[in-house]
Amino acid sequence: MTNTTATYQSMTAKEVTRFIVDKKPLFILDVRNEENYSDWRIEGETVESVNIPYFELLEGVEAAIERIPAEGTVLVVCAKEGSSIFVAEQLAEAGRSDVFYLEGGMRAWSEYLEPVKVADLQSGGELYQFVRIGKGCLSYMIVSDGEAAVIDAVRMTDAFEQLAAEKGVSIKHAIDTHLHADHISGGRTLAENTGASYWLPPKDAGEVQFKYEALQDGNEITVGGTRIAIQALYSPGHTIGSTSFIVDDRYLLSGDILFVESIGRPDLAGLAEDWVSDLRETLYSRYKELSEELIVLPAHFGKITELGEGGQVSARLGDLYKHNPGLNIQDETEFRRTVTENLPQQPNAYQEIRQVNMGKIAPSAEDQREMEIGPNRCAVHDK
Amino acid sequence: MHKDLVVDTKGLACPMPIVKAKKALDSLQAGQVMEVLSTDKGSVNDFQAWVKQTNHELIKHEEEQGVYKFYVRKV
């Protein structure tokens, strides 16, 4: 007997990530409203998408059928998942095969972390990058000799604890390069869950409501006895406390100061004019004294094209001095203009997010998810 | 405010508030007003975009203790 029931299936954020990283074609029918779609959507070199709000498809999906290819995987996406199921079901009933909906919607997309191994370190440890592909946040984990340190942990701390468990290591340090404004830090939660120390630069922590270890220029934090050194390098500009790290003499974790295709914006704490000269000093003097061979590992990416092999986001410092537009503005006045005028819109709820990261407010888990909706927009060139 | 019909979608998630509102709207005569109640925060923007697209009139919307109220006049 032939099964005539129309079928459609769920696809997880992890599976969508595979399409993007492996550069497999994926067609997306995004059924959120126009405003949400133009603000933030799933992107990829092999991803094509169209936007038809679900409320335009209440009486039938003919309009959608006309605009999606006749064959190949089609993924229906909405904010949570309800409307995408509603539309996917109708597409399947209309005879379209290979129909999927995004499990958990854009909320799940915002929260998915893809762990990518960056390198085996010289002294035996490993360095991982966690790519929060939907939002553009990057966290790091250094594993060595039974211990681990996590840098710029995001709210979904399970991912770090899970890798630590797989590797049989205990997390000893949770470190934030600066007080984040685009996402809620998982550093404090991670420290509470694992007994790790939580490190913050004191100049960003003037108003915080909890105890932390003061991260100072020249500090050296070791992971696994004395094996992996994390050297703190004071690099103000995105925030006044912003600190970078040199790991294993080879990797420059640049926080939100330097990205692959842009540089950090100085305005998210409301002090753009004051911090411009710090930002310039860090990028045009302090970093310039470092080895050009360092591999830059930033805390964000702005465009999906910044994802390289396996989804990794990284670049050689010397190459960034050649190609990154933010490092090639010789005139100081022009630099000031670039980083203070015509900046992209601020990240969603960035003031509240800063308050959460200072421990001043403690919204529910549901509210925290809502606050983080949308892209990070921490770079001056993000649009 | 005068209303001819109340559509209660409290507790329902997307897309049901708009599915129900659309059915109700279809049953109204031109000039009549319906009140739609919803607890789905996510559908607030969708609701406004939907009414705009249908060319009916969103007279006003408000929130009261977590309940969103929309008043729509059929054109």
What features would you describe in this structure?
The complex is a heterodimer of chains A (383) and B (75). Chain A is an alpha/beta fold. Chain A folds into 2 domains: 9-108, Rhodanese-like domain (Oxidized Rhodanese, domain 1, 3-Layer(aba) Sandwich); 113-371, Ribonuclease Z/Hydroxyacylglutathione hydrolase-like (Metallo-beta-lactamase, Chain A, 4-Layer Sandwich). Chain A is 27% helix and 23% strand. Chain A contains 12 helices and 18 strands. Chain A has helices at 13-21, 34-39, 62-67, 82-93, 105-111, 158-167, 187-194, 272-286, 317-323, 332-340, 350-357, 365-371, and strands spanning 9-11, 26-30, 47-51, 74-77, 99-102, 114-120, 126-132, 137-144, 147-151, 170-175, 197-200, 213-214, 220-223, 228-234, 243-247, 251-255, 295-298, 315-316. In chain A, strands 6-7-8-9-10-11-12 form a 7-stranded mixed beta sheet. In chain A, strand 8 and strand 9 (147-151) form a beta hairpin. The longest helix of chain A is centred in the C-terminal third of the chain and has 15 residues, at 272-286. Chain B has 75 residues and is an alpha+beta fold. Chain B has a single domain (5-73), classed as Translation Initiation Factor IF3 (2-Layer Sandwich), CATH 3.30.110. In chain B, 32% of the residues lie in helices and 33% in strands. Chain B is built from 2 helices and 4 strands, in the order E-H-E-H-E-E. In chain B, strands 1-2-4-3 form a 4-stranded mixed beta sheet, covered by helices on one side. In chain B, strand 1 (5-8), helix 1 and strand 2 form a beta-alpha-beta unit. The two termini of chain B are 18 Å apart. The model of chain B has no long low-confidence stretch (mean pLDDT 93). The chains are: A alpha/beta (383), B alpha+beta (75). Chain A binds chain B through residues 32-36, 53-56, 58, 78-80, 82-83, 86, 370, and chain B through 13-16, 18-19, 22, 41-42, 45-46, 49-50, 53.
